[in-house]
Amino acid sequence: MKILDIKAVDEKGILYDIEMQIAEQGFYDKRALYYWSKVYSDQIESGFDFTLLRKTIAINILDFNYLNEEDFHNIYKIYNKKTKEEFSDLFEMHFIELNKFN
Q: Which pLDDT score, from 0 to 100, does residue 96 have?
């Protein structure tokens, strides 16, 4: 069951997709990427000026443990696996797992 879905924009023009999920899903990574991509790609139409695309941040609040991480808040970005150099700052995805919060 999905209980929260918010699209927002802040004063800097950064877009946010905020999702809250209480039902455990083994495929949540695919779902999270899909919803992030929809908010990002809906900014322009095919063939338009790609320089208009703005940073898009997904915030996923989960009422179950999904990641193999100890921390309750984890942030993912796109980077070079070898050098750790960030490819682009347009993508950011947060996972907040409530069951890991003390």
A: 98
